[in-house]
Automatic annotation (TrEMBL):
Membrane-topology annotation of the record: Multi-pass membrane protein
Gene Ontology cellular component annotations, sorted alphabetically: cell outer membrane
SUPFAM superfamilies: Carboxypeptidase regulatory domain-like, Porins
Source species of the chain: Fibrella rubiginis
Extent of the signal sequence: 1-20
Keyword Signal attributed: yes
The protein's name in its UniProt record: TonB-dependent receptor
Residues in TonB-dependent receptor-like beta-barrel domain copies: 341-923
Entry similarity comment: Belongs to the TonB-dependent receptor family.
Length: 952
């Protein structure tokens, strides 16, 4: 925090340095073909962060203290980048830009090596989305445009919250992938995953998004195990004036008795310069109705009887056939109905000792639960607010100081092992930075108010207050004569109806009372005795400082050496609702620090060939774990337009705070001693679901397989990755990007299900109503491999048309070992050595959580300039089927493949400095699921008007 204050003071206290003679460069940018003026062309002074953009008449003006000769770089959507040498600044320039055949000609990226470089010569696979891609994309916002990149899977949790996944192990909350916004980590300090656009910058303020699919830990720390996304906002010195966007649309089309629903998205940005000083202000507000999770099919889950293996025929298949009719299914458990869980407190097992109804002996019956809309009680309404204010000051032409405030807030649902709703999430980030051509020093803080509740816990406690499960089961048995619905209706007498006064009263008590505090009615209502609330709090904070220096000016021209270091402090604040407190009652806090060094050589091998070998190493230390090094070596061979790359990296990942400290109140248990003790898993052991099923049949306690905690062995997750790739741009018309990789994971951190007897007596395990289900994090002993490759192509057809496409394949393999390192066999005695994790005979031995489609591709046809005013794009996306293993209240299922058509058409109104865009994602409104238990995604249709850089 001291560094943050010092940098802030530096910005406001610095006095203006001695001024050199000011040079003013003016000019006009036009379309080479039509000679019409081009508005919005970016003009940058090479070697500095000085810039300007052209107005409606194509003119610009740029002031600098540097003396001629100077080099300007002009760039604009749909046109080739152009460099102009200025020798006489008194003469106005005329810059005629030529139409560009493809989108990526000379794009510069910084994420691959932390220094600017041509994207074609980056040592690792890197993707970039800029103004041209955002304008052409049918996606409703820049973040959603990521789904068109090869190998990227966006899992939609809410309309405003999508999780980025690459190269396997798809997660609704991906803590193996780092998201940076202007260099700031986007993740929740406590929950440990990036929030994407929930708390990102305004859409109007995004200049570019760079994405590295694959390990990036050598430069960005241990959490970038699977990749990195860097979002850069617009600099007010370059992008000035007033911009605004009005967007209206609808979704949930075709939903019976629910849709369609409208939404609106309003954004405004204003930036202004005053000599060396500049500022910008942003605000964006989205409101609408979320895609509702309304899959009421019977839940497919490995704990179902005869779920996978058919031994007589020596085949493995989904032996359990879901029965979606509650009238004929005693164990009906709707996927998005909560409180009716057949395996987590929502069911009752009848025996000869607890019922006189012989028809029910040996049967399990589930309760009647509540839907997601019942529990949310908000009709799916959703909102999102984002704001940003930043102040910038140029100490010199090459050194800029800035301070900024970034705010994000709204409501959303996230899915871990359970569905959780956050009705009013808020996050504030404060950032200060001094940045020059060869260095930066940055400090920022992240603080949040994240208070929500688990929908499953809420449903179970509402049902408990209305009628305890044992009482409900007795009433059901008395009424049951073969008619399931009639018996449930009789047993449900006294259960609170959604919207009723009692339902609202107890729902509000539960969601407003922390999950470690008794609700007010616990003292007066018999069924609420000893019942806690369900509210969880993660109001944690994070403080970060880092710096980097490039020694290139002190070294020979062919040599480049950079070094950097970082320090981070986490301050957990969950008040015992997610993480336990220490023995003295205080909350957990811990530090991380890291240091990196990277060196590279630029070797000329002839007139038309270069070789750039690079080596990097980073050391990181979290106070809970041993420190470790993450080395990377790479090389790029460029021969004419052909660029061949290869890299190897070893990396590790610290468990997220959630994986380390969760105490079981939300269903997840961390791997630390404190977490295991808080969940009482040491004094009251839990058992594997398969062994509990065997025990329920035999009654023999020796069938139980106990989970034995070993917190001392809980350690970091490791990976080694090899990758080769090729990029080229041939005759400014054909762009090719291909890659091939192999990754090996060890000490992989995953959460497995275990069942704990409620009272500590193993006899509790005989009945689902007296059993608690936990997901416990630990390092498994398996060796995990991910092999993949991808290909991206873009071809300029002429007359502004481009056709592009990409394909990505990723296959997860596993060698399964028991706790003693012995290779395990499948159900038929075959060793599981580098076998597909999606094979059912492998999955039957334990969840692997690869959860990723093996194949996916996109194809697009675009022309941003059908005419001087009209542009269009149509994109087809296809994603392969995938084997999903998810959580306690979701399950295990083969999700079918899905495809969708996205399209947009845009029209420019130059006189109004406005562009109109009519677009749709999932144009044909074919609902599909990206994960089990998630909302199914239908069409999203919108019309936007963007007013750009008014009142410059």
């Amino acid at each position: 925090m001291k560094l943050l204050r010092y940098l802030t003071l530096l910005l406001f206290l610095v006095t203006t340095a001695a001024q050199a003679q000011t040079v003013t460069i003016t000019g006009r940018a036009t379309d080479q073909k039509t000679n019409e003026p081009l508005a919005g062309v970016t003009i940058l002074l090479r070697g500095t962060n000085l810039g300007a953009s052209t107005g409606a008449d194509g003119t610009f003006s740029l002031k600098t203290d540097r003396q001629p000769p100077l080099v300007l770089v002009a760039s604009f959507v749909g046109f080739a980048r152009q460099e102009i040498t200025v020798t006489d600044p008194t003469q106005p320039l005329t810059i005629a830009l030529a139409e560009d055949a493809v989108t990526l000609t000379e794009d510069v990226v910084v994420s691959a090596s932390r220094v600017p470089e041509d994207i074609r010569k980056a040592a690792v696979t890197v993707e970039k989305l800029g103004a041209r891609q955002f304008a052409n994309s049918p996606a409703a916002n820049p973040f959603d445009a990521l789904q068109n990149l090869k190998g990227v899977d966006l899992l939609t949790q809410s309309l405003t919250f999508k999780s980025v996944n690459v190269r396997g192990f798809g997660a609704n909350n991906n803590n193996r992938f780092v998201q940076l916004t202007d260099g700031m980590d986007n993740r929740s300090p406590g929950l440990g995953f990036g929030f994407g656009s929930v708390a990102g910058v305004s859409d109007l303020d995004i200049e570019s998004i760079e994405l590295i699919p694959g390990a990036a830990s050598a430069l960005y720390g241990p959490d970038a195990l699977q990749g990195l996304m860097l979002t850069t906002s617009k600099n007010p010195f370059v992008y000035q004036g007033l911009s605004a966007q009005v967007k209206v649309g609808m979704n949930n089309v075709g939903k019976t008795n629910f849709g369609p629903k409208g939404y609106s998205d309003l954004a405004i940005r204003y930036a202004k310069t005053f000599g060396r000083f500049a500022f910008k202000v942003n605000f964006q507000r989205l409101s609408g109705t979320d895609f509702i999770a309304d899959n009421y099919d019977d839940r497919s889950h490995r704990d179902r009887a005869a779920f996978l293996v058919d031994q007589p025929n020596r085949t493995v298949s989904l032996g359990y056939v879901p029965n979606n009719n509650p009238a004929t299914n005693l164990q009906y458990d709707g996927v998005n109905i909560y409180g009716d869980d057949f395996n987590n407190g929502g069911a009752f097992d009848y025996t000869a000792t607890n019922t006189t109804n012989a028809a029910l002996v040996g049967k399990r019956v589930t309760r009647t639960g509540y839907t997601e809309l019942d529990l949310l009680a908000n009709q799916g309404k959703i909102f999102s607010n984002r704001a940003n204010v930043s102040l910038h000051y140029k100490l010199t032409d090459k050194i800029e100081a800035s301070v900024g405030w970034y705010y994000g807030g709204g409501n959303f649902i996230r899915t871990a092992g359970f569905r959780e709703y956050f009705p009013d999430y808020q996050r504030n980030q404060f950032r200060a930075e001094v940045k020059g051509e060869d260095f930066f020093v940055r400090a920022y803080s992240t603080s949040q108010t994240a208070e929500g509740y688990n929908l499953g816990n809420l449903a179970r406690r509402l049902l408990q207050i209305g009628k305890p499960t044992a009482t409900w089961a007795s009433d059901f048995a008395k009424a049951y004569t073969g008619d399931i619905l009639a018996a449930k209706q009789a047993a449900d007498a006294g259960i609170f109806l959604p919207g009723s006064a009692d339902y609202t009263r107890y729902r509000d008590e539960l969601i407003n009372t922390p999950n470690n505090v008794a609700i007010p009615s616990a003292a007066t209502v018999a069924n609420a005795k000893g019942l806690n609330g369900v509210r969880l709090l993660d109001n944690s904070s994070m403080y970060h400082a880092e710096g980097m220096y490039n020694f290139r000016k002190l070294l020979p021209k062919a040599v480049e050496l950079i070094t950097g270091a970082s320090f981070r402090h986490y301050s957990m604040l969950t008040q015992g609702t997610i993480f336990p407190t220490k023995k003295d009652g205080s909350e957990f806090a811990f530090n991380e620090y890291g240091w990196y060094l990277q060196g590279s050589l630029n070797l000329k091998l002839g007139l038309n060939a270069t070789l750039k070998p690079t080596a990097a190493v980073r050391y990181d230390k979290n106070e809970f774990f041993k420190g470790g090094f993450t080395p990377r070596v790479s090389g790029v061979l460029s021969v004419g337009p052909h660029n061949f790359r290869a890299s190897w990296q070893s990396a590790f990942r610290n468990p997220s705070p959630n994986q380390l400290l969760s105490d079981g109140k939300t269903g997840e248990v961390g791997g630390s001693q404190a977490a295991l003790e808080a969940a009482n898993l040491i004094a009251n052991p839990a058992y594997t679901p398969a062994s509990v099923a065997a025990y329920q049949k035999s009654g023999n306690a020796t069938d139980l397989v106990k989970y034995t905690p070993d917190p001392a062995a809980f350690t970091t997750e490791k990976i080694k990755t090899w990758e080769v790739g090729y990029k080229t741009l041939i005759k400014n018309r054909l762009y090719v990007d291909a890659f091939l990789y192999r990754s090996i994971y060890t000490d992989f951190i995953a959460a497995q299900n275990y069942l704990q007897p409620t009272s500590g007596n193993v006899a509790d395990l005989k009945n689902a109503s007296t059993t608690t289900s936990y997901q416990v994090n630990f390092n498994n002993t398996n060796e995990i491999f991910v092999n993949g490759w991808g290909l991206g192509l873009e071809y300029g057809l002429g007359r502004g048309f481009t056709v592009s496409g990409n394909y990505a394949r990723q296959v997860g393999l596993i060698t399964r070992r028991d706790n003693f390192g012995v290779i395990q066999n499948d159900a038929f005695g075959n060793p599981i050595v580098e076998r597909r994790m999606s094979d059912l005979d492998v999955a039957f031995r334990g969840r692997n959580f690869f959860i990723s489609p093996e194949n996916r591709y996109n194809v697009s046809l675009a022309n941003p300039r059908l005419t001087n005013r009209l542009g269009a794009n149509i994109t087809y996306r296809w994603t392969d089927q995938m084997w999903v293993e998810q959580g306690t209240t979701a399950g295990d299922i083969l999700l079918p493949s899905w495809s969708t058509v996205d399209a947009q058409i845009s029209y420019k109104l130059p006189a109004l400095k406005t562009q109109a865009k009519l677009g749709a994602t999932n144009l044909l409104n074919q609902y599909y699921a990206q994960g089990y238990g998630l909302a199914r995604i239908g069409g999203l249709y919108y019309l936007s008007l963007t007013f750009d850089e008014l009142f410059r």
